[in-house]
Amino acid sequence: MVKKLLASFLTASLLLGVCGCGAASAEDSGNTSQGGTDSVQTTVSNADPSEPVTLRMAWWGSQTRHDITVAAIELYEQQNPNVTIEYEFYDFESYFTKLKTLVASDQVWDIFQLGGNFPEYIDKIYYMNEFIDNGTIDVSDIPEAYLKITQDTEGNQIGLSNGLNTYGIAYDVDMFKEAGVPLPTDNWTWDDYKDAALKISKATGHFGSSGLASSEFIAGCSTYIGQQGNVGQYSFFNLDLTGMGFSDAQMLTPYIQMRADLINAGASPDAGAEMEITNIENDFLVTGEAAMTWVAVNQFPTIYDICAGEGRTLALATIPRVKADGPAGSVIQSSQMLCVSQDSQYKAEAAKFIAWFQTSVECNQILKGERGIPVADSVRAALESNLTEGQQIMYDYVTLVGTFATPDKVNVLSPNGQDEVVDNYRNYIQQVVSGEITAAEAAEKTYEDAEALFK
Amino acid sequence: MQTEVVKSRVKKIMNSNEMVGYVFAFPFIFGFICFSLIPILTSLRYAFTDFSLGSKTMEFVGGANFKQLLTDEVFLKSLRITLKYVFISVPLKLVFALLVAYLLTRKTRLQVLYRSLYYVPSLVGGSIAVALVWKQLFARKGLLNSIMGEMGLDPINWFGDQKLALYPLVLMSVWQFGSSMIIFAAGLKEISPTYYEAARIDGANMVQSFVNITLPCLSPIILYNLVMQTIQAFMAFTQAFVITAGGPDNGTMMYALYVYNQAFKYNHMGYACAMSWFMLIVMCLITLVIFKTSKSWVFTESGD
Question: What is the ipTM of this complex?
Fold first, then answer.
């Protein structure tokens, strides 16, 4: 099952590279022919438009996301008086805890948000093809390539993407200058990164690099593997998600050693300080106690605005590389998607809401690309004409990452059970910090844990 | 005729003394069966399967879950941490509760007020809000470290150091001494004042009368509190979940938190059930030990 799903996510990234983000107009020509726009098509809706419908919806995210999503929901309810949407929102971890209990009791929300970990919940997802084919929803505004990022190889539409996304490092420009550290270049290396973090922490007394632990594993550790060898030679998990994508555990060692060194030098938060970061909005970069942090770039405009309000300037740097002329390891992917649940009573209504959420310009004027760069052409065009500074930086950055050489196939999905591997990995780093084990042993243990997922 | 008989029978049943009891106990019995007994029994079955919340199928795996416990580093560590937590927090809490209860037996007009005040932490203690306050108190730039900074001391990184992180949690549990205190206070009231009078006449001082009268007379209540608090301490969850999430390096990975992680975060419900049952056995053993030893230190006035 997983294998099937995967391949599509692979091809998707390929297409993305071709599309770029700013180049939306290039897509239109290829796209208009296949859309489901025929106005003749009658709407096969199984619900009487006046019949009251109650949809349950849930998502995870930060306070900003909660506020704007609720505003968007209220707009939809206003436009569709028969629809009532009961919403719930959580932080990332609680969201999945709740979802797992709902899966067990067959009561998954009608509309729910999923990311790269969706294979675990595939049995609960109702494919949206039916609604696209019979014209219940109109997705002609979304380029084929962006529809594909949330399809499996058989063309099943798993959901509609909330936006395009990639990882980066947000940094405080003035702190770099204050410490006399050169600003990151597009192909800076991990050595540059470590140097910068150490120097800044020495000069300013703040952390050189902080970071939400949940981002670090994917943005740092797993990218580090993809950056070694030739483009596409290695990946953390293999492409069909059935095993490891590299065989020498020691490939992880330098990275783990670097993380431990930074923590030991006080240039990165230790376990206690890390606990104080609960979401991106109180990350040490945002509170002015760190010079860099990991971000999924859709988080950038929010923290940019917060810091700008305090007179500080943030910028986005690429994920450092192993070698300046080596692979970047970064890929553009779907940030998350909205899916229709198998348990839903009103699947068509749920699909309609999702399509509206992704393609309505009015709705996205409220959402402002907070979940990533919108996939619908008209929405992207409308937002692009009216970008804030932070959003402009994000758009430029995604375009830049789109120009990097990427492998033919990449795997952005998480295997079932990855959480435990990540938690253990973080503990191993702490054990390296306290000198209980060496970085080489930590690498070995992390590799064993990850490998055990496939047994 | 027949209906008459039935009616009178129903009447008889409804009016019987037992019926009243059953009616009043019904909500509890219903809740106990549906929300405790049935889940407990199902969990016993799950403990021998690879059941997980996300998937709909499960396979019988025999004792594999229990075997896995023996090699699980995090599990062994959490067991150690939890035992340490119980052995430190329970005695401290009881001593503190007894001390406050003893002080509050002195007749003052404000006695009721004091007693209520000291009970408040127990009412709010299990809540998320207090745990968050605790997290802030002991944070790197929290109140405690600010005070220490004012006094010219180095700040302590409570939650960054594996050896220290457990103590704020212990302190939080000790702070919630209210319910044991109330029980101690009630027990102290039951001790006949004539004993103290007699002791005073014989020239015993405060300490002597406390050791020789208060403690023995209170020992059944100490036993009760000891057992209850031990069981409660084994189940500690909120503090670790909210304040430290088990870190640093699993230094505060309480047993209950690890069960929760395995069940809901890592998706190994079967394994988590096995852990719960193992915990039940450990708790039974410890309670048994307490009861066995109690014969030598619990004093009953009616007995020998």
Answer: 0.80
